[in-house]
Design brief:
Blueprint: H1 5-16, H2 21-40, E1 50-54, H3 56-59, E2 69-81, H4 89-99, H5 105-117, E3 131-133, E4 143-153, E5 162-168, E6 174-177, H6 179-192, H7 196-213, H8 222-230, H9 234-238, H10 242-257, H11 287-300
Parallel strand pairs: 2-4
Antiparallel strand pairs: 1-2, 3-4, 4-5, 5-6
Helix pairs in contact: 1-7, 2-5, 7-8, 7-10, 7-11, 10-11
């Protein structure tokens, strides 16, 4: 049953509140814990590994202490090159053969696990690429530690060289991410919208998670909700009250993602990093997923009666 206006406003007000001061301390504590374990590990001596928090906690779009803090450990001295979306299987195989050194993705992850295990409890399910440091009930959140390598994209003709990271999964795939660009663009958009951007991302994440838990909507990566809100014009996010802005944002997205929208251009929408297209081959979501999600959220919140 759709929420009433008063119920919806009360629900959305939770996500308009500023991030708590303790969140910043937890973020720094997570970085220090991982950085300290890496610095003390003999096998990593002299490697100059980069240890940085990434993801929703850095962007201010997390939904509380139940969400793990993501920390990347990057072996920057071994850099892969390729297209925005990643490397071909043949090209990647050639690079692995040409390298011939110790620090393969498997070896790097193994040593990172050893480094963390010497400092704290670590959960390694054998499936996930990340290693997890459990949180403290009622206190520090869990930490997902992601081993990765440097990644460089050089446009063939025009454009700016971009540096990101590549994560090698346990099943032989690889994922290219652009955390610095995502953070810079998100910070700029949040400032331009009077902090309505992070509010809208958190609100959409929360409602999407509630709908997925009841089976009213498909479960999608939370990053997808951030991508959707980043596509909303700044002026729409600044309009009226937070409730007005969220209503307008969902209306904009529903139009952009509808197959009947004559002037919408979903194929031009970009992720928050401003580099990779939001929809296309190999993505874990589709245009129809986005439209179904936005429609379900609008109906649940009482925007579509």
């Amino acid at each position: 049953m759709p929420l009433t206006d008063s119920q919806r406003i009360a629900e959305l007000a939770r996500w308009a509140e500023p991030v708590r001061a303790s969140d910043g301390q937890w973020l720094e504590d997570a970085r220090r814990l991982v950085a300290g374990a890496v610095a003390r590990h003999p096998a990593f001596a002299g490697l100059g590994l980069l240890v940085e928090p990434v993801g929703s906690w850095v962007n201010g779009t997390h939904l509380g202490s139940a969400v793990d803090i993501d920390v990347r450990v990057e072996f920057a001295e071994r850099t892969f090159h390729g297209a925005v979306g990643g490397m071909s299987a043949q090209g990647l195989a050639r690079r692995h053969r040409a390298y011939g050194g110790r620090w393969t993705p498997q070896e790097f992850r193994s040593e990172l696990g050893a480094a963390l295990s010497s400092a704290c409890d670590v959960v390694d399910t054998g499936r996930s690429t990340a290693l997890r440091v459990p949180g403290v009930p009622g206190g520090r959140p869990g930490i997902r530690v992601v081993p990765c390598f440097g990644y460089l994209h050089r446009p063939v003709l025009t454009g700016t060289e971009q540096r990101g990271i590549v994560v090698f999964t346990r099943d032989g795939r690889h994922l290219v991410n652009w955390p610095r660009q995502q953070w810079e663009n998100g910070r700029a958009k949040d400032a331009a919208t009077g902090h309505r951007y992070t509010y809208a991302v958190r609100a959409l994440k929360a409602v999407a998670a509630d709908l997925a838990s009841t089976g009213a909507s498909r479960s999608l990566p939370s990053y997808f909700t951030e991508c959707l809100i980043h596509c909303v014009p700044d002026g729409t996010l600044r309009t009226g009250s937070p409730d007005d802005a969220f209503r307008g944002s969902l209306g904009f997205l529903e139009y952009q993602l509808s197959v009947w929208s004559m002037f919408a251009k979903p194929d031009t929408l970009l992720e928050p990093n401003g580099i990779r297209r939001l929809f296309g081959p190999g993505r874990p979501w589709t245009r129809s997923d986005g439209h179904a999600l936005v429609t379900a959220v609008r109906r649940h919140l009482g925007y579509r009666r």
